[in-house]
């Protein structure tokens, strides 16, 4: 669906397809990314990384490397022993976690291929890379643990001293006993092992860091490609360096995507900051793509055992899921929180399921770190639930649409408490409305006829559904924090608005755009609320100096939390403007309205004072109301009372070439409900990108390690990120069911596409092949996998 | 392993074929470079570390396409894009243009050359398979002068050819062929042929070349579309697999693509 673009006017811009203000600088190449940074005297860092998945380091000799012309200095882990290991900021709530986290450089052991053990600082990048080859390391390889299911078995090598059976945490939600009972009593039970394979997030811009250190004040400045500069500062200063929080400034420049990988604190960031102090020069480091593939976090990587119980009429009575969640060789910053709070707690999906239980074992293996990746837990949950429901429908020989409809949480049941959300409830929803619209767009009845005709010709057409609900707009602080779900801080968000003397508006926030277009959406909100032209609004992001502390951008929170904070500040500024305006109009406050950028006496709009005039008066403070402070300025710290729950229906139509196993995606329909939409262009873009990533998991992408823990899919030549030509045009529509959680009625849209789309494809392919008796095929659905499933099914005849 | 910059190297850009041949012959550690899209990525990862690069780009006369009797002679430095869009190639041997148009992406086709592809002999490349089926001839020049090598004899192994030290591919001759088709299954990441089958039909008989399965193009003669599957299956032994596709699947896929390529080739003959 093409959305027409609007020229900005000073009217209500909320809901308007305003062209993004970020785009001109991106299209013309003038945007400044981290790799564009040039600091006087800047030196370059290259990192020596382990070629082994599991090894001891007996000795590192850097003498030859030091002697290379252009090399300034070479460091090993021992040089940073005075720094603490990185913190794990989100331990799974309510259970013991056996935590192992990385150091700036590992000292005597590595637990995944790519872990950093030495660093070269040189005048040029080339000299730095040349020097890496001259560092001599005495490695003692240890047994690598790679297989997730084998990792927890008796006799398997234990990777971390404190984690028996390589288990980081054993976490539950729901009622195990009641669920077991319900399964025993169910008229039908379907069981399935499913794999949600490891993915490599692949933002176009890899990670990097640059730093300077000022000895006279002890202050660091660190440039990071980070989704949350304030958190980076807090974690580095308070937890790793042990210095006052105010002794570090963190800055993010233009970022080229993150998808979650740029949330975390990584060893290299600590290393680069520490090197700036040790070397006494600005230093910079940018990942190569290969480093990005081995040393930046991966996503997903679950093996789950599903058991779904139901009555013969399709009513679901029980769902039990046991999941092994691969955390990798060592913990990234929030790794334990993702497969627990954000996954286990969303296993009710869009359905009323009276008995649910989930057990998650977080497991260490000698593979790359695993942490949040677009959707973070909810794609895994949606995949599990949507496959379970589809398998149930197949077992009962019922229409998968009708089984879904039958079990939907109905509109009058909201707010709906699924019992596994630790006290939260789904806010609002009208699941059937989205489903019906999607069915209409795809012409479901027509398709089933087409499918029947095609089957007679020996062609395999299939249709797959995903009726999802997701949880975003994270989160109420007390719910998600250490007292609740174990996240080591809070999740409110901040916004500051200042209207300057000249009537121009500056907005700062703890949100951190890395492709989402916040400069545009926040400007739309502020311009609309304050009644100023959108060109008069500037949004400044990405610097701990100059933005209020905030938790950053991930979990689709920057509309539901960040924009709401902005909105609330705007309301208070309007109120102050009304007070000052009334004073300027010499009228009683009760007689004055503030609307559309003007304060006026009710019934006498021509007497108005504009917000520009009011801002000027406020700044000059020559004559303000008694007790009123100068300047139009307001800061909000908004703690949401609940998460928000977008939902929708996605449908995929596929054709399977049974001879080759090739799957062709013929149509993709998405009807999403993200609550109130601030900018439909931006939401469309988010949905498109999310669908592409989620479909990619089903069809092409998979991160593979060999049995020695070497990453086989270590470049874009092996890891199949899809091209645009792989997809049909997406047919995207929306319903709009506002949320009562926040005054804007917004839910969040950044991750819905990825969350919904993956099961859609697998459901479609198994539907296409159902006449052959094929129930399930694990992802990615490569031609060979599909071909083998068909061959196996035929062989069984 | 994690590098992005090549190790240091000497760089020459000769302006004649003789000079190029002489530079390569006298330095065993020297490699020729044309489009660079196979060699440079390997050098950046330091999987290849030639001490010297001999850039062939300035040598005149190596990028011409000329009718030659019934066929067409294509200079070694002709880019894939030029082969794909050339009227001469399209009119005499359209299957070659089709294959060239499916190599990599537009940026790769703008730089990659037929001579470079042929000399590199990547098992996933398209030209070796198509040229083998077409019965093409590859002309090379070296310290001992010029010689011609039949395509069927040229590709001897994975990244291995019949080229002697110091020899450079200078042109490829392709006979006029109408009844031909090339069908490949491209790797979704790299675009390389996981399996590529070229079929040529002449006088009612079919000739196949199968690439991507054993590492070098395998040729087979086929009487009919119906017998293609079986012929191909028995012609392929020692199929190579990787994490994307096993040897067993590649062999199966080859039989399917062979039937499809042959069907199209017969239609065009």
Short synopsis of the structure:
The complex is a heterodimer of chains A (about 800) and B (about 270). Chain A is α+β, with helices and mostly antiparallel strands.
Largest sheet of chain A: 7 strands, mixed
Could you say which overall geometry of chain A the principal axes of the C-alpha atoms support? globular
The coarse silhouette of chain B is globular
Name of the level-1 CATH class of the domain at 408-418 and 426-473 and 643-797 in chain A: Alpha Beta
DSSP strand content of chain A = 15-25%
Largest interface: A-B, 36 and 23 residues
* CATH architecture assignment name of the largest domain in chain B: 2-Layer Sandwich
What Rg of chain A is obtained from the alpha carbons, in whole angstroms? 27 Å
Q: Per CATH, which architecture of the domain at 408-418 and 426-473 and 643-797 in chain A? A: 2-Layer Sandwich
Quaternary structure state of the chains depicted: heterodimer
Order of helices and strands of chain B: EHEHEEEHHHHHHEEHEEEEEEEHH
Alpha-beta content class of chain A: alpha+beta
Strands of the largest sheet of chain B, in order across it? 4-5-10-6-7
* Total count of strands of chain A: 26
Number of helices of chain A: 19
Using only CA atoms, what is the Rg of chain B?
18 Å
Q: Average pLDDT value of chain A? A: 96
Termini Cα gap of chain A: 45 Å
Q: Which key phrases capture this entry?
A:
heterodimer; A: 797 residues; alpha+beta; Aldehyde Oxidoreductase, domain 4; 7-stranded mixed sheet; 5-stranded mixed sheet; 19 helices; 28% helix; globular; B: 269 residues; Uridine Diphospho-n-acetylenolpyruvylglucosamine Reductase, domain 2; Uridine Diphospho-n-acetylenolpyruvylglucosamine Reductase, domain 3; Enolase-like, domain 1; 3 domains; 5-stranded antiparallel sheet; 4-stranded antiparallel sheet; 27% strand
